[in-house]
């Protein structure tokens, strides 16, 4: 078999290559027609379950989805083939803010906004949008060939799902864990909702630090007449209620307890002492604005100060008694400029410094967050966090790679109460009703008919909706039917693994853990796999808005789903580093699929129809024993790799076995064997049996990674009657390593034969002997068993190295040029005079010798450097050592060759 040269570049080769588009659409249709993906519960089998992190209904499949989807599919298919009863739960998230924004934008194009429409009609409009576009991403997943339980696609707004949410909410509410709090939260003036700490991004911004003079009401004798306050946000100053200094700050001690006059507003406010103040920051005196800053709000609480709000939800200064008339209604950043200018004019702006600082931005729309005092619903976290910390510390839930344990624990140990309400319309409305007659407030699982206290029918539901992460926090159990005691819950919960992206460890993973522990008294999953992030080819973050994101669907169109899946598998989860997108890898794996395809077509052409016959273990050739040994060693390695989630190794081992052992060696040898009479027996049937046995089984071993090409080839492979009944290869058993095929002797013998063949091929290459030229190789072996082995294997060497082989022929002409190599106890000699132009070859070798000398010098310089020796990590030293050894080896070869050519 020869590798088709880069099929991507050669349309002719492409024609004869693997027709992935055809095969993929054929099998996708077949699988869905035959309902192979529907859940089939086998209660007596071991079970494997996972919940897909639900993508947003507004989303499109990106590289992260495709990578994560592939890894989960590889595991699920593997477990299914191992006889596990599997459940892989797919579905989508309603994505409150994101979806509402999309529909609002749509309305804006018609010149409308959601208030024009009203709440109910707006929600109806969002549903309409969802029906039309909301399943796009699920259809995109189909292109990847993932084996979700497609009959179970869930949605966080499904009626049964909403029931689960209301159940969870009322349980938490009734235990006093959900409460109404009035405090400063992150407010997005564009999305018009509060967002949690995890939904804001801190970005470094070049801004100003304004140093403003606040005049003292009573000037102490000989003292200054003002305190200078440093702030980045003068627009919030009308909400100031105090100036705070550190109690131990000698500069300000004498002012504590006095009052200053708030510039422009002319309101008198106290100077207070609080250890929150950082003496090193700015002037060491801070304005305290509890209505618009979380830390100030806490200072305000400690000193029993009021919390006036001076900026509204849209980021404009309010029309109220705190804001001087001139600034009312002004946009916050325009107000900043105006106030700064006015302070300057009044001589109260001491200094404006350039200042780079981190500013919170809305994760959704990138608007600058306006901290805002508001009423929100909070989930009390201290009690919920404790068991969630313990289950990870005790190893009940483990993170892979392990280092993400710290990400999780750091967050959980410093967790604050969670703001779970959002001022949106699209989402699950908070199930709290207040009686308009008597004011009783309570949470209900179902819409109440009347007040439980006074019987009044005038009940009003809270207008807010729940944070989207509250609903997705219930995902692994709400999708299985909780709170109903379903069979799925009994068998598949807790789920086996969760595979997800690191950026949602705190947003999502942590919440599933504490909500499951609280509501079900169970962990939601045993292992959390965190996959790497795929960056652009030049190491940047992929971003749709920047236009540098690679579309996985485009790559599937170009290289086929299997090649893409193979690449994703090779990335795995183990690496500590993020990975860069490398299109040449996809090209390489496309060639790999093609190689398998061509090998398959060759094998299938050799096999007689009808069920395969058993192997006759007594009549196996060396090559047969070797390939069986190699194959079963592969299975053993794969087993271990799966157990360790070492996807990279799974891909690497499959690649090497298919390409090198099976295609490059065994199939080539099989061609020889099938023409050979050995010991008077026709070895054709036996070779066919080995080919069949290895190939059929190999397809099953590859199937979890590359479902399409394996399904197509397997459907055409003669199989046992039992296998022939199966609807798909996905239900066939995963092959097991059989220890009796282990054969060290075959391994080392075949290894020797292969090395001899390589040596002759190498001589051909080194001396530039054209491929078509027939050569003669003489082997002299000074060890008996080795000699016998090579005599027995002569026909392999002759065919695969395109040479005549003579044994131990004496060297007649001492002046003749002869290429020589030695392997083990064997000396390999190829007479050259009849084959090459000796002079030309000598020139070429001399040039090569010079370039290797240069390289050697470079490597030696680094390697012999004392600093490198003492400081470089051991594996790096090893790499250098190998490099050095190789170069030295090459050098001595060349010298040898030059000597040969005299
Ligand atoms: Zn926003
Ligand atoms: Zn009432």
Describe the model:
With 902 residues, the protein is of the alpha/beta class. Among the domains are: 193-372, Valyl/Leucyl/Isoleucyl-tRNA synthetase, editing domain (Isoleucyl-tRNA Synthetase, domain 2), CATH 3.90.740; 838-902, Helix Hairpins, CATH 1.10.287. The chain is 44% helix and 17% strand. It contains 30 helices and 31 strands. The strands form 10 sheets. Strands 7, 8, 9, 10, 11, 12 and 13 form a 7-stranded mixed beta sheet that branches. It has a 4-stranded antiparallel beta sheet with strand order 6-5-14-16. Strands 29-28-31-30 form a 4-stranded mixed beta sheet. Helix 20 packs across helix 25. The chain is elongated and about 115 Å long. The two termini are 37 Å apart. The structure holds zinc ion (2 copies). One zinc ion (ZN) binds at residues 188, 190-191, 362, 364-365, 367.
Summed up:
With 902 residues, this protein is α/β, with parallel strands linked by helices.
Set down the secondary structure blueprint.
Blueprint: H1 11-16, H2 20-33, E1 47-51, H3 63-81, E2 85-89, E3 91-92, H4 96-109, H5 114-117, H6 119-133, H7 136-143, E4 154-155, H8 159-174, E5 178-188, E6 193-195, E7 200-216, E8 226-231, E9 242-245, E10 259-261, E11 268-273, E12 285-288, H9 294-302, H10 332-345, E13 349-362, E14 372-379, H11 382-393, E15 398-400, H12 404-413, E16 418-419, E17 421-422, E18 432-435, E19 441-443, E20 459-461, E21 465-466, H13 468-472, H14 475-478, H15 487-492, E22 495-501, H16 505-520, E23 525-531, E24 534-535, H17 552-559, H18 561-571, E25 579-580, H19 583-606, H20 622-643, H21 647-673, E26 677-678, E27 681-682, H22 684-702, H23 707-716, H24 721-724, H25 744-766, E28 775-781, H26 784-792, H27 794-800, E29 803-807, E30 818-823, E31 826-831, H28 838-863, H29 866-871, H30 874-901
Parallel strand pairs: 1-2, 3-4, 9-11, 15-23, 22-23, 24-25, 28-29
Antiparallel strand pairs: 5-6, 5-14, 7-8, 7-10, 7-13, 9-12, 10-11, 14-16, 17-21, 18-19, 18-20, 26-27, 28-31, 30-31
Helix pairs in contact: 2-23, 3-18, 11-12, 11-16, 12-16, 17-18, 18-19, 18-21, 19-21, 19-22, 20-21, 20-22, 20-25, 21-22, 22-23, 25-27, 28-30
Bound molecules: zinc ion (ZN) (2 copies).
